[in-house]
Amino acid sequence: MKLIISSVSGEPIYEQIKTQIRTAVLDGELKAGEALPSLRKLAKELRISVLTVTRAYNELADEGVVQNIQGKGTFVMDKGNELMRRQLETRVRASLAEAVSAAKAAGLPLEQVGSMLVQEYRRQR
């Protein structure tokens, strides 16, 4: 996983880190149980303060995305974790809302959209 930080984006650096790690976990790029880089290592790579990385990791832990284990590091939580499941559900709902808007704009009937969803769901298995 490669984090890209922008100092001119207007978004705080710790938020950029959180967003990118959260996305990598939800997309499956980071697997359950996988260790994140140490605080010092990531701070050095990104040329930022250890406190900034600490804040990002701690907030991700509060969200249930990662788990901080004293003396061992920070590890990705299982997607079965309730908080992660809710975040995934929110992501699915947002994608479905976007798909419904596109379907309505195209004049597709609900039955056809439902059929398309079933086909895509089965294709992904």
UniProtKB/TrEMBL annotation:
Q: Which SMART domains match?
A: HTH_GNTR
What protein name does the entry list? GntR family transcriptional regulator
- Signal peptide (residue range): none
Q: Report whether Nucleotidyltransferase shows up as a keyword of the record.
A: no
Q: Which Gene3D superfamilies match?
A: Winged helix-like DNA-binding domain superfamily/Winged helix DNA-binding domain
Quick check: keyword Ion transport in the entry?
no
Query: What Gene Ontology molecular function terms does this protein carry?
Result: DNA binding; DNA-binding transcription factor activity
Per the database record, which ranges form the HTH gntR-type domain? 11-79
PANTHER family documented for this protein? GNTR-FAMILY TRANSCRIPTIONAL REGULATOR (PTHR38445:SF7), HTH-TYPE TRANSCRIPTIONAL REPRESSOR YTRA (PTHR38445)
